[in-house]
Amino acid sequence: MRYLLSHRTTYAYASAVDSAHHIAHLRARDFPGQKVSSIGIETDPVPALAAQHVDHFGNLIDIYRIDKPHTRFDIEVRAEVDVRFPEPPPMASTPSWEEIRAALNGNGFPVPVEASEFVYDSPLVPSVSALRAYGAPSFTAGRPILEAARELTSRIKADFEYHPGATDISTPLAEVFAGKAGVCQDFAHVEIAALRAHGLAAGYVSGYIRTVHSKDEIALRGADASHAWVAVWCGEQAGWVHLDPTNDLVAQEDHVAVAWGRDFSDVSPLRGVILGGDSHSYGVAVTLVPTD
User: Fold this and answer.
1) 180 and 274 housed in the same domain
2) Structural domain tally of the chain?
3) Which of 8, 89, 130, 222 could make an S-S bridge to 184, C-beta 3.0–4.6 Å?
4) Which DSSP letter does residue 154 get?
5) Which residues are registered as beta bridge partners of 19?
6) d(CA 76, CA 283)
7) pTM here?
8) Structural domain that includes position 141
């Protein structure tokens, strides 16, 4: 599936910002199953300095410095992306979750070294005992890892209410779980915590899900904004499988991935430091339209 993507973010400030530094995770990345044909980012004001880097996780980041007074900051990315995530393996063919846990532990020498760092707590996904208990019914003895993770994904979709405004990025994970409501980033953090509590590797993926433009299409939660889901390590042969707990899906043709890390704090679409500005408001507009 080929998509045209537009993501525009606007900040409006109550008073002039004298200078600003911004870091953006907005460039969709290439990987098996996704190819970025073209991409461009425009900002207003035009920055005095613009640089690109690759972060620890292989994500593409843009760094901007604006050194003239401004009361508004606009940044827009436009891209053309081809997506066809690999077909997931049959669930029953994947190793048991205990085998994967043992490999990730490795008695101190894990076999998949790059995956092993996604087993541990991260800033927004600390250990929460209630989430280990919540995940336990899915992780019965000897169960194939993808079958267990897939059931956990379905249970989160069924048990949690999609409710924009119920949480924000500062809402602690334990509070999200207690309230059983939130948005895609919350559901991703819940699933990541439950997986890691069982010694498994789970990463946070930021990106987009297709925008619905027809009444005949299924309405997918999280469209028209940035979206988030989970990548779970299923062993050397299956690799990372992307699961969307907000929509109870295996990510394939409906999703475009931008960046991944341990949790949202690693891949925030836009963050920075400003001098001045007082209060501010912001808006985000996303479209992901298939061209096929």
Assistant:
1) no
2) 2
3) 222
4) H
5) 275
6) 12
7) 0.93
8) 91-267
**Residue 41, number of CB atoms within 10 A of its CB:** 17
CATH code of residue 236: 3.10.620.30
Which single residue is written with the structure tokens 């394939």?
Answer: 252
On whether both 194 and 252 belong to a single domain, the answer is yes
CATH number, position 53: 2.60.40.2250
Share of the chain above pLDDT 90, in %: 83
**What letter would DSSP give residue 141?**
T
Can you say whether the dihedral through the CA atoms of 86, 91, 97, 103 is positive or negative? negative
Place of tokens 């200078």: 19
Cα→Cα distances 239→70, 198, 258, Å: 46, 18, 18
- 204 and 266 Cβ atoms separated by less than 8 Å: yes
Of 173, 139, 176, which is closest to residue 160 (Cα–Cα)?
A: 176
Q: Would you state the structure tokens that stand for residue 197, as one six-digit string?
A: 């509590």
Domain identity same for 55 and 100? no
Per residue in 36-80, pLDDT (tens digit) is 999 999 999 999 999 999 999 999 999 999 999 999 999 999 999
Q: 126-185, pLDDT tens digit by residue?
A: 999 999 999 999 999 999 999 999 999 999 999 999 999 999 989 999 999 999 999 999
